[in-house]
């Protein structure tokens, strides 16, 4: 096929049949619900993948994506194409205020004895959320010396996890971080032509990154979490999948542990063992 014919073919629409196949596949593999109104977006975003792979039709792309081995590579690319990895340091700052003013003092109680607070950033994207948590927790544990903390950060996308693990961000991304935290936890590149910063090793060491697809039968860890941040993730799933997933989160949440969801997400009408304690903040019923 000539280059021009290839280019034109790549801009053709997805057939109804291929759109249904893609929708079903993405729903089964990662719980993401694509409505018919997203067809054009899916087409535009996946056309880039077709070009990158040198494929001439959506039908051949489906065949490529549905191979069993694609679970380790192309599935991630397809998920990246249909979801957004949008995140920020100190995103929805009221959550971090609530954590330090209410949740942590409640979890710590009278503070007698040593205690490790366990936190899970579920759907951590490029790391801004777990590193924000690590900064806040460092501040808290400095004032409560008998306390320690551990953070698990997971995402389905290996691409975002690689970036998260590096912990390198440009000047614009670090803007929301309060100055004292910037001073304490970020190192500026020695190369003055580059305006990039790296999270200090002592903070990076506090976050354990792992790939995890929420649709997997087993999350692959046993420990109970005191706090789960799962923000701006369940929005991609239908109500039924959300409810199932939230119940699985609760199985990993300690009694009276806290769950934080995104500002546009609601658990209203769901059968889950959680009580709302503040907008978008829930606590597990003991
Ligand atoms: C919009 S980001 C949210 C990042 C962060 N929690 C925040 O609020 O700033 C959503 C993340 O969910 C991840 N995600 C989507 N489907 C997933 C799945 N089935 N399992 C695990 N992570 C998933 C995406 O890869 C993406 O990085």
Description:
The chain is globular, with a radius of gyration of 21 Å. The chain has eleven helices and ten strands. The protein is 42% helix and 20% strand. It is an alpha/beta fold and 286 residues long. It binds S-adenosylmethionine. S-adenosylmethionine is lined by residues 30-32, 79, 83-87, 91, 123, 125, 129, 155-157, 160, 212-215, 231-233, 236, 262. The site of S-adenosylmethionine (SAM) has 26 residues, from loops.
Characteristic terms for this protein:
three-stranded antiparallel sheet, 42% helix, seven-stranded mixed sheet, globular, 11 helices, binds S-adenosylmethionine, single chain, 286 residues, alpha/beta
Question: Per the principal axes of the C-alpha atoms, what is the gross shape?
Answer: globular
Overall strand count: 10
Output mean pLDDT: 91
If strands are numbered along the chain, what order do they take across the biggest sheet? 6-2-1-7-8-10-9
Q: Strand pairing plus helix content: what structural class?
A: alpha/beta
The radius of gyration computed from the alpha-carbon positions, rounded to a whole number of angstroms, is 21 Å
Q: In DSSP terms, counting alpha (H) and pi (I) runs of 4 or more, how many helices?
A: 11
User: Uncertain segments of ≥5 residues (pLDDT<50)?
Assistant: 4-10
Largest sheet: 7 strands, mixed
Distance between the termini: 64 Å
User: SSE string, helix = H, strand = E?
Assistant: HHHHHHEHEHEHEEHEEHEEE
Q: What is the percentage of strand-forming residues? A: 15-25%
The ligands found in this model are:
S-adenosylmethionine
Helix proportion of residues, in percent?
A: 40-55%
